[in-house]
Amino acid sequence: MSAVRYLALVPVAAVMLGPFFANRVTPFLFGLPFLLSWMALSLAMTSVVMYIVYRFDPRNAPGYVELGEQGE
Questions:
Q1: Distances (CA, A) of 28 to 17, 21, 33, 36, 40
Q2: β-bridge mates for residue 29, sequence order
Q3: Model's pTM, two decimal places?
Q4: CB burial readout 17-53, b (16+ within 10 A) else e
Q5: Distance between CA atoms of residues 38 and 19, nearest Å
Q6: How do residues 42-68 score in pLDDT, each as one tens digit?
Q7: How far is CA 22 from CA 14, 17, 33, 41, in A?
């Protein structure tokens, strides 16, 4: 398994562990309470991270052949 796939754990950690550290109301970002803006930014970060994982995964390279598919 490619090491870049472990990067997919970052958004999970941001969503699951972030509220323990970002559970604040008073600082407002973009007019939203901090926790809500944290979740919105985590959602956007998930899209960026999944794109990076997709681009750098060797299975998505042109000409990649899965084992067992060579003769088919």
A1: 20, 15, 5, 9, 13
A2: 32
A3: 0.69
A4: ebeeebeeeeeeeeeeeeeebbeeebeeebeebeeeb
A5: 8
A6: 999 999 998 888 888 877 777 776 766
A7: 10, 9, 10, 12
